[in-house]
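Amidohydrolase, pasting as requested.
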Amino acid sequence: MGAKKQAVSSVNDLHPVVDTDLHLTEQQDDILPYLEEPFNKILDVNNQGKRGQVEGGYLSQLYPSAGHLTPTDTGRAETDDVRSPEDVERAMELLTLDDAILTPGLNLRLGLVHHDELAAGFMTAYNNWLLDTILDEGYHGAMVVTPQKPEKSAEEIDRLVDESRIKAVMIPGGGVHPPLGREQYFPIYDAAENAGLPVMIHNAATGIVGNYPIQWRGTKRYIEVHVPYHSAEQMWHISTMLTNGIPVRFPDLDFVIQESGIGWIPYFMRRYDNEYSKKQNDAPLLEKRPSDYIRDQFFFTSQPTEGIDDPEYLCHTIRMFDGAENLMFSTDYPHYDFDYTDTLLSSLRTEFDDDEIQNIYGRTASNVFDL
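Structure tokens follow.
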């Protein structure tokens, strides 16, 4: 592959630069004051310290965890807080960003909350905290919905439809059962399509405890889960979305698949096309190849970009799924393994022209999120 003739030599030559997965680091203490009845009384949010059971008054985290020790837990890596407008501004300056879609941290585990009504309460509480604390200061973000209560999630989308700073609907997909192609989730997709908002699907490694509890019991280290789980669960969700004709039922709805790497995408597209050619009755609503629906309605965020030190692999992989049109730059900041803004650029410059690089770094995101 020969280098293209380019004017783009650094991120300073790109505009806009949009991060499609910049995480907030909200804590329970941020969210609990926004809980409405009855859970504000049940959890006694104004009197937490008097229970005496554990710090904060709770026997356990309200958001389940798989219990693996991450590099952050062991002190081998540090992460920054992003819980205020000042934190967001500092992050955007550090990363040389023009814009970002702010996504949750703690609430990536919302789909694991073992109380459906409480999960719905957390959904509304997080969205109100997000608007009051962060987005009212001029930033853009994704609202969360709770897969446990699709009808309530649809109502939440309708409630926030006029909030111009809300640019997407995020389903925390980690540990969600059944997978996201099933009919029970149609109200979420219908409401999002009517609102003109893309649906983001973001997994969390801790979701293994929900969907694969037997396999979880056999894991002893975080890396055993973190490497395969994100992409494996995304394939599971997308597979059921295709068999149940979600792109056909909701033709004006875009999906953004987050934080799962890129190598699996061309494999999945080709594998699905091959299977579909022999088993079309398993996906009776599809009117064209599954990979064509993926190219038309699915977008992918870049981080974690495996193979960043091998430009030939990276660029060839991106080409195989038409990534110049549907790959969107992301950092995953402030997680310990986040990508700096220029990490991807040097590899892209060996294969892609300026327009294609600009698509990946911001133009596609501007269109998908109506920025």
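Note for the archive: The CA atoms of residues 300 and 327 lie 5 Å apart.
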